[in-house]
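To whoever picks this up:

The parser on our side crashed when reading a file containing two proteins. I've narrowed it down to the boundary between the first structure block and the second sequence. Both blocks are reproduced below exactly, byte for byte. First block:
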Amino acid sequence: MERVTPQYLIKKKKKGEKAVLLTAYDYITARIEDEAGIDVILVGDSYGTTVLGYSSTLPVTMQDMLPVVGAVRRGAERAMVIADMPYMSYQQSIEYAIRNAGRFMRLGVDGVKLEGGLAMKDTIKKLVDIGIPVMGHIGMTPQSYKKFGGYRVRGKKNTESLELLTDATALEDAGVFSIIVECVPEDVTRKITEEVKVPVYGIGAGRYCDGQILVVTDMLGLLSRETPKFVKEYAHIGNEVKKAISRYIEEVKQGIYPDENHTYF
């Protein structure tokens, strides 16, 4: 199958074909997603809240992300792998952003993702100019959730919707190959998708995007926690894992496991 590239994704948009994106945080999950046909695997800084147990993504560091990014890259062959740049790994200066993006690129990823619109234009342009593909991210940007007063839908107010359109066009001008729009009313996302030529992918942004992205642990029901309205659980694997572990505990306690079939003689 054809490997996914920025050019491949742009062709899909022109044809009106939806792209499918998903996060991954380890080799096994990346391999399964790749074999299933996922187009883009994002190694999200959501790793902090889904795996490390943080209450937000803000504590996640480059040191946290580097081994995870490497593992996911080794698990994917066809899918495009994008590394999420964690909080304060790129905001400090353009030079700092280049240094950290380069650390990810050395691991073999296909690009990096940065949060922010117009304010990040110069940084993104420089990264793109030196050959690093960049995915943008606007709307409810988790690294800035304190600025917005918490995790909330953005774009309901006319001023916010205009700001998002400005952000999207600024990102396109800077050279991003795609934009993620998070927690935005679908009529606003529709305008953004029609306004820019690069693909627009939604997470809680409605039906009128060029594709969708979800956090893999949410859509698989791995964590027993409250999820946002936009999340659809396609499985309840957390419950199945708990059942399997409970059965194992009982069989060991009762002397049922191991039996002759699981013993060397």
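<<boundary where parser fails>>
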Amino acid sequence: MFQYMEREMASEQFYNGLNCSQSIIAKYAGKYNLDVATACQLATGFGGGMGRQAKTCGALTGAYLVLGLEFGSSSPADK
């Protein structure tokens, strides 16, 4: 899923000031018709290992957000 160019784009986002989680979801936001600003707002709290507590990696939580966009359910009826 994460090809070389995609890694480079996410890294560029990080070096431009986004946190790890924001960098990952910002790369994929357009694919899911989500504007980058909203995606970054959603991912803000996951930066620095969830609230800057240095626990779960922000890049990992960003990837989980993207997986949720790809495979997640949107109603209780979805299994």
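After patching the parser it read the second block fine. The mean pLDDT is 83. The CA atoms of residues 22 and 40 lie 5 Å apart.
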